[in-house]
Structure formats: C-alpha cells, structure tokens
Amino acid sequence: MNKVVFLLGTLLISAVLTVQAIDFSGNWKLNHEKSKLNAQFSMAPKDMIAVQSGNDFNLEKHSTFQDNDFTIKDKLTLDGKECINPGWQDKQKKSVAEWSEDKSSLKITTKFPMGDNSEMTIIETYKLDGGNLVIESSSSSSFGDMAETMVFDKQ
What we know:
This protein is mostly beta strands and about 160 residues long.
C-alpha cells in the first residue's frame, strides 16, 4: 500500500512540475467586435507580433493615435525580473512579467513616469481563449483609471 501511495504521489508531483506555459507567439489582429474597448480613448493596438522563446518574450505593438501610426517594441523576460524599455517622451518604463501558478496566463505589470511627476501603472493579463489572444488591461494614473478587454485573432 505504501508503495502505491508513494508512486501516485511521485506521478502527481511529476505532472505538476511538467506543466507547460502557454506560447503567445504569433501575428495578432485586434477583433473590435469581440473586444470591450473604451469609447473615447483606447490603448488597444490594431495589431501586434509576439515572439516567445525560452525565457524571452518580445512584443511589437502597432497603434494609431490622432491619425499618427506608431510602434511600441518591448523586450521582456518570463522569470519575474524587471525589464526596462523605452517609454513615452524619452522616459523609461519598467515591466515585470509573471506566470500564473498553473501557467495558463501571463501578467505584465508596467510602470512609467508621467509628465506631471506622477506614475502610470498598467496591468495586462494575457491568456488564450480558443484561437484568440485575450488581454485584460487596466491602468491607473493621475488622469484616472481605465479598463479594457482586447481580443485578437491569430493571422
């Protein structure tokens, strides 16, 4: 009986340790119909490219604001360590990416300084739902709080 309990315990621990993290790699296009975006101002990119390899997670987001196209490129690591990338107006933004316990979602917390000497915090949770990438995003700053759910179709 003890051998059976030991064997089952070993198998359970082995299964837990081999849980694979989701791979968000791909070219993604925003699906406006499925998304819940703010009417006046949305932080949702129109499309993005995600490249996930080992501990590296690179994002390239293409957006338009006031008829101007721009691209944001972030290089992150998936080990919970702080990563620094270029932010708005030549300021640096600091991001930390952390997996959920079951590796089914990735939370990225980004902080960057604002022009009024305050700080904005953006929390994005990445997960897959069927064939879609879903990003639940919330931000908080001296300008107020905002939340959106962005749904992307794989291209």
